[in-house]
């Protein structure tokens, strides 16, 4: 490529789901785009996160439902075929090869440069290619940092030498460990405890707080905790890990425990230990210092995803790196917004629609980000929890409904256990949050997202009649309770 060809309208650093979408949006609006990728096109989501984890969990949830279905449960008495489940997972991770995604990029007219990219002052990116050569790219309009996040490990004595699992190993391991210790009580911890327990591991879940899924409505974590315990997981709350040792490279790992929970003292031996203790931004080695920012920090952006504190309006941070919502669908939404913003600014449009819910504002990150946790029971949530609404000073009414009372739920499986909650803003007359926990509630979530994002007046929602007998009839029960 000659020097002139190294100038693009948009340079995208990182070809995860977010970088791919941003490049696609910019290109669709007539801009030239290049993406720089140091590992696999498709990013964390395709190979070590969403796809492999859900491929592991799908058979687990299907079996759980089958076991609760009269006439069917007798047909599913045996254990899961772990090697078949792992093979299914391998296929969904494309065997950790990105040929398919590379082909898509190629056919879409977006250029790809493989290698590690770093900012090199305003609008410039240098790439260290796999063969060690350096290449410089220049952006006419924008550089978008879409480098994602990695697992954050606590600073514990002995941890590095003990070769702990992170989310990468937990989603790609080739065999089932006999004993797996999981540290953390968030989404990765509960999903992976669910999967590996069902695949046959003895799982101990070590949670330093008092419950699971602390950012969600309390009943969600309580239902998941009860189900994990029932499935044979040794759940220890109020328990911190203060040390980790693996004296023999191929031998077991020993954790030192402390805390005020029952079972918090002493030590715990396991064959593997997964640290599911949150994420850190992959911004430590991307040249942030060359544009006046701090390496290793989450990037602070406005609602257009433009990085604040950088003059000239050319730098964007989209997806996990901006820490607005660490979710693939939300990052892709930001990419659609930022792609439109970059194109509009490149075309010199005088006015952008940056008001809430405008075309150039990622409003849903704060007001309507949905999430499904694929545990048994599933948890599905959108918008604010009751506690968040209260902290935000909103005047709300909270309505709860036992999902077991809904005909569609009791038909779905025997002994259905679940709970639903809506949070209604009394001043505005519409929903600002909803949470469901129970089998198959994931597919219920989009109805709640619509109600929150479209700000459907509660009086109009009353006319949206759920079909009988579906689990969606929970909407009728919730609205009946609200209206009295
Ligand atoms: C176990 C697990 C399960 C998850 N499950 C779900 C789920 O079910 N649903 C959901 O919505 N979200 C899920 N998430 C979250 C989701 O994976 C992330 O929100 C999503 O991957 C973020 O996309 P991204 O493009 O911002 O970053 P990433 O997917 O992390 O992609 C970033 C890309 O940038 C590349 N890169 C980094 N630095 C450089 C550099 N200097 N030069 C060139 N390339 C670089 C990386 O190699 C990578 O390919 C899960 C996360 C985990 C850990
Ligand atoms: N189904 C999904 O949508 C899905 C699935 C997995 C992950 N994700 C995304 O990935 C992100 C990362 O997930 P995660 O579970 O790693 O992070 P998280 O922030 O959800 O949970 C981390 C947990 O670890 C605990 N923790 C932190 N440091 C600790 C320490 N030193 N010792 C013990 N506990 C500690 C925290 O209190 C917290 O409960 C989430 O924000 C989520 O959005 C989404």
TrEMBL record:
GO biological process terms on file: 2-oxoglutarate metabolic process
Residue positions binding NAD(+): 184-191, 278
Keyword Cell inner membrane: no
Superkingdom assignment: Bacteria
GO MF annotation, one: dihydrolipoyl dehydrogenase (NADH) activity
Chain sites annotated for binding FAD: 54, 117, 147-149, 320
Cofactor: FAD
Pyridine nucleotide-disulphide oxidoreductase dimerisation domain: residues covered: 370-475
Coiled coil: none
Gene3D superfamilies: 3.30.390.30, FAD/NAD(P)-binding domain (3.50.50.60)
Family as reported in the entry's similarity comment: Belongs to the class-I pyridine nucleotide-disulfide oxidoreductase family.
The protein, known as: NAD(P)/FAD-dependent oxidoreductase
Species per Swiss-Prot/TrEMBL record: Streptomyces buecherae
